[in-house]
């Protein structure tokens, strides 16, 4: 793709797109309002109509950056990794040691969402990550959920609010730890 100054064509540079799926939150709200005003029939109608309302989500093509170059394999993204204070020095001196398993298989687990990383330890490291060729995973049943690295992918990405992560927050697994550099603690 082009330089980092080019707008992503999928989101027109905004970093956001409207979902094409069911908006569960809007469906529940529509159902509750319909039930309160029109009874059971209103609940069904409100749920159907409310659930069809578009929901703003992070753009899959540029991972929310708005830049066309973010889709290329050379991009660098700021991400976060939560760990214990005891592990920080080892990570800074020796680099990351990938986990042998996990929701997305072996690799180093990071997130663009700092709050997600905060759940995994008392210290959050800010990172420069080169995710490379990324496999988007949106289902536990995805055939490549834990074997994406065997098919030439450098990382696997779970988008926010897709049902894979209970918190609804985004998560990325990077197979090769040399793609990750610690920026700060």
TrEMBL record:
> What InterPro entries does the entry give?
Poly(ADP-ribose)pol_cat_dom (IPR012317)
- PARP catalytic domain location, by residue? 73-123
- GO CC list: cytoplasm
Superkingdom, natural source: Eukaryota
Q: Name one GO molecular function term.
A: NAD+ poly-ADP-ribosyltransferase activity
Checking Pfam families in the record gives: PARP (PF00644)
The UniProt entry, under PANTHER family, shows:
GIG2-LIKE PROTEIN DRED-RELATED, GIG2-LIKE PROTEIN DREP
What this protein is called in its record is: PARP catalytic domain-containing protein
Species of origin reads Effrenium voratum
């Amino acid at each position: 793709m082009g330089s980092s100054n080019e707008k992503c064509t999928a989101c027109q540079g905004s970093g956001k797109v409207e979902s094409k799926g069911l908006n569960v939150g809007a469906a529940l709200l529509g159902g509750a309002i319909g039930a309160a005003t029109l009874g059971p029939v209103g609940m069904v109608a409100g749920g159907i109509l409310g659930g069809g309302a578009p929901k703003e989500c992070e753009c899959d093509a540029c991972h929310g950056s708005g830049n066309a170059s973010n889709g290329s394999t050379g991009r660098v993204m700021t991400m976060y990794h939560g760990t214990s204070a005891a592990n920080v020095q080892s990570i800074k001196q020796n680099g990351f040691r990938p986990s042998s398993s996990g929701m997305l298989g072996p690799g180093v687990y990071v997130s663009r969402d700092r709050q997600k990383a905060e759940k995994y330890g008392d210290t959050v490291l800010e990172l420069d990550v080169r995710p490379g060729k990324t496999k988007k995973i949106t289902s536990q049943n995805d055939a490549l959920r834990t074997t994406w690295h065997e098919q030439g992918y450098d990382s696997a990405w779970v988008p926010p609010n897709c049902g894979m992560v209970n918190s609804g927050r985004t998560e990325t697994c990077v197979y090769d730890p040399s793609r990750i550099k610690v920026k700060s603690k």
